[in-house]
Amino acid sequence: MRDRTIAIIPARGGSKRVPGKNIRPLAGKPLIVYTIEAAMESALFHRVVVSTDSEEIAAVSRKSGAEVPFLRSAEISDDVTPISAATADALERLDLDGTQYQFVAQLMANCPLRNAEDLVASYRQFAETGAETQLSVVRYGWQNPWWAMKRDASSFALDPLFPREMSARSQDLPELFCPTGAIWWGKTSVIREKRTFHIPERTGWEIDWQHGVDIDTAEDMEFAEALLSLKCKRG
To answer: Which of the residues 59, 119, 133, 180 has the least number of beta carbons within 10 Å of its own beta carbon?
Structure first.
């Protein structure tokens, strides 16, 4: 299996909300290093490859043991191109005829708290179900998404997104899940063809919410650091 599986870590250099996010220190370690180490410790992958447009990210990644065999083009390193396009691009560069790798894991560098055990467990479900693609998801907590409301910017009037569910008891409503970029699996043939993991046949693997944290803001960095500190105190 290992010879047929590759990990792709997309990590562009142009983050605007948190400049230099992917190599910004988190508890004394560059953010991307957490993802590289988890991938390598899982022993699932023939190659652990970082797709980046940044020489600085590439240097940190190589020092941590990942491969950076090319720099990603500017055309797929902007704010609007889907991340999965970078993963599909990497597959096409690294496996020209599509015969070497059967499965790919897309691991977002801004999800540093997932670990090797999460990767192994997620792959187990992916293999057992035979899914085309599988997304990591977290269960919503104390904020009930069924009770979501829009607020008018001028009048502050509230408009429920799900009017019927507003009157239901929370225990009578089905559980809802939110995707997190921690661990996305896909058959390489599907990703090369569709260039996305979001296909109708996708499945979801539930990850502990503390392991599925996505870092998009400076406040998220502080939150992740607090979780790491708490984990260290617990031993």
So the answer is: 59
